[in-house]
Design goal:
This protein is α+β, with helices and mostly antiparallel strands. Strand 6 (152-158) and strand 7 form a beta hairpin. Helix 4 packs antiparallel against helix 7 (255-287).
Length: 650
């Protein structure tokens, strides 16, 4: 009777036992690590601690006591010492060895099957958690990599009849070198396709199958030495392969690993098949129109997902192709202020109000009516006095045919957005309507705000300035740096503020525009993010001031002239009487003196000069306007020769 096939060294002998075909050892300490079944020669004089020593050496091994001749006393002694079994005689020992070897083999196979089962269960659980095809392929290559402890695991997909294949997954994405490969460059892949069975190449450099590409393999920097391929099948056709490669050759691949690899390949094949079937099914469904009864039946099948939908905070309704609601979750009932059961059978569009009905009909018809994500605002009347705004997205369903609508109440959000928009528009209008120019810029210089007053003053349009021009451009050289220096100082109104100061700005035509400037730094926390300047054009004000100065000077001149005229009149009046007396007495004295009198000549001079003075006084009395003429020392005196006036001085 031959023993079941067990690894070498699994069955050994301790002592003198009549089995020449088994390894024999003298002491428990000499037993090999791989021993699973130990036959121990049992006799009365053998030390009592033999079993304990073997147990310490090999805790998992099974111990069989061998007795040359049976006796009740010897059997009892063996049982007391802790043996797992007792044999006596050669035939009985052979039977015991066969039975225990068979049990060990079955136990190992059972453990192997359990390991495979656990691995398969774990794989299925992972796939169930992430059922998308890409995730399934990723899971498969990762499990293969862990199972075989191999350098590279790939998923290669094929199209029957074509000479190219596609590498769609790697256990490390960085390993993907070419997404498209030629089957002629991989003879092992072609052999797997033809055989429809796994292909194992222990060493690629010594395999005849790869003789046609050996030179290419030898030229590679790190050519693969081990190749294992598991076919991926669908409807009896090879649609792909799990392709394992390693830099180190292997003498053989364990049968256990091969079975596990085949199971993973089967599961992967099912996932690929499901994806192919899904594509086919969707193509067929797009070409067919189902009857309303079939639609109702299939949409009703969505009830199995109601537990998932019920947990959603968004309202979810499912309609048929005509727009009648077939399912509504609790959140939908809350938003629409109706019992979810009462919503079933109603037209979703009928719940909307005003123009929203038209938009809703277009959305259910498959038109794009929302934002880039497909969301659109719809108005839902609640009673007679209240209206709710919902943000809804409609998605066509192919299987079963219908429309899935998800939505949420955004009434408060839209009201807040409207208020913010109104505030924003008000502030923008306020800024644009300001008579003062307002210019804001990022702290690095680019202009971000340029109101209409700034356009008017500097001649630029906001379009050619905002985002395109640096704020330093509108200042003379180094003036922008001076403004920032003042803003960051505490001496000009406090840090981050600049009190009103006189500056010149550069207009578009290059002219300097005098302005009155105030500025501030805008902060986010402690960080400077922008600056804003408010300035007033001083050109008109300066012109007005200049005109006022001129008028003031003219007024001062007029006042001086009026004073001069009044002074001249008063002087003429005051001088006229004494001068008249002088002229009278002088004329009287001249008449009394004869012509030869020596005093006659001085009296004539007095009379002549008095008349001359009288003429001058007369002119002074007639002054209404006058001119001046240069005099000694650079001064100006009244030019009586140019005195105007027709009236005599009084």
């Amino acid at each position: 009777m031959s023993l079941p096939l067990l690894p070498a060294g699994s069955v050994v002998v301790l002592g003198e036992v009549p089995r020449a075909d088994l390894p024999r050892y003298a002491t428990p300490e000499a037993l090999p690590d791989g021993a699973r079944l130990v036959v121990v020669e049992s006799r009365a004089e053998r030390p009592a601690d033999t079993v304990a020593r073997v147990r310490r050496r090999l805790p998992e091994a099974r111990l069989i006591a061998w007795l040359a001749a049976p006796s009740d006393e010897a059997v009892a002694r063996c049982i007391d010492r802790g043996f797992d079994d007792v044999s006596f005689g050669e035939r009985h020992l052979e039977h015991c060895l066969w039975r225990w070897s068979r049990n060990l083999e079955l136990a190992e196979r059972n453990a192997e099957q359990q390991e495979i089962h656990r691995g398969l269960v774990n794989l299925l659980e992972e796939i169930n958690e992430r059922p998308e095809l890409a995730d399934v392929l990723c899971t498969s290559v990762l499990r293969m990599s862990e199972l075989f402890d191999i350098d590279r695991v790939s998923v290669v997909l094929l199209k029957p009849g074509e000479e190219v294949a596609f590498v769609v997954a790697e256990h490390e994405e960085a390993l993907i070198e070419n997404l498209v490969i030629r089957i002629s460059d991989y003879p092992e892949l072609r052999a797997m396709i033809e055989r429809r069975q796994p292909v194992v190449i222990p060493d690629t450099l010594g395999e005849n199958l790869l003789s046609g590409v050996r030179q290419k393999l030898e030229r590679a920097k790190a050519p693969p030495r081990l190749s294992v391929l598991f076919p991926l099948m669908h409807h009896g056709e090879v649609v792909g392969a799990l392709f394992l490669r390693d830099k180190q050759p292997r003498a053989h691949v364990e049968e256990r690993l091969m079975r596990m690899g085949q199971l993973i390949a089967v599961v992967t094949s099912v996932a690929i098949g499901a994806a192919l079937e899904q594509d086919t099914l969707q193509s067929e469904q797009r070409a067919l129109k189902r009857k309303k009864a079939e639609v109702d039946e299939k949409i009703a099948g969505l009830q199995q997902f109601s537990d998932f939908f019920a947990q959603s905070h968004d309202g979810i309704v499912v309609t048929d192709e005509q727009g009648a609601i077939r399912y509504a979750n609790a959140a939908a009932g809350t938003v629409l202020a109706r019992d979810p059961q009462a919503l079933q059978g109603l037209s979703f569009v009928s719940l909307l109000g005003g123009r929203s009905r038209v938009i809703g009909e277009r959305a259910l018809g498959g038109e794009s009516v929302g934002d880039k994500f497909g969301y659109v605002d719809l108005a839902v009347p609640i009673g007679d006095e209240r209206e709710v705004i919902i943000s809804a997205a409609a998605r066509k369903m192919e299987q079963p045919a219908g429309v899935l609508i998800s939505f949420r109440d955004v009434t408060e959000l839209r009201e807040l957005e409207a208020e913010l928009k109104q505030t924003k528009e008000f502030l923008e209008n306020l800024i644009q309507s300001s008579v003062d120019a307002i210019v804001a810029a990022e702290v690095t210089g680019p202009i971000i705000l340029f109101n209409r007053a700034a356009e008017r003053i500097l001649g630029y349009s906001a379009r050619e300035v905002v985002g395109r021009m640096n704020v330093a451009t509108i200042y003379p050289p180094d003036e922008a740096r001076d403004v920032m220096r003042r803003l960051r100082s505490d001496a000009y109104g406090g840090r981050g503020r600049l009190e009103m100061t006189r500056k010149d700005l550069v207009a578009k035509d290059g002219t300097l525009v005098p302005v009155s400037l105030t500025a501030a730094v805008i902060y986010e926390g402690e960080r400077e993010v922008a600056t804003v300047g408010v300035f007033t054009d001083l050109r008109e004000r300066l012109k007005i001031e200049e005109r006022l100065d001129q008028v003031q000077r003219q007024l001062q001149t007029s006042e001086r002239q009026a004073v001069a005229v009044e002074l001249a009149g008063a002087a003429a009046h005051e001088l006229n009487q004494p001068l008249t007396s002088i002229l009278g007495y002088a004329e009287m004295l001249r008449r009394r003196l004869p012509d030869g009198d020596p005093n006659r000549k001085p009296v004539d001079v007095i009379c002549r000069e008095s008349e001359r003075m009288a003429e001058i006084v007369k002119k002074i009395g007639q002054i209404t306007a006058y001119e001046t003429k240069p005099y000694v020392g650079g001064s100006q005196i009244l030019d009586l020769g140019a005195v105007g006036g027709d009236e005599p001085a009084k």
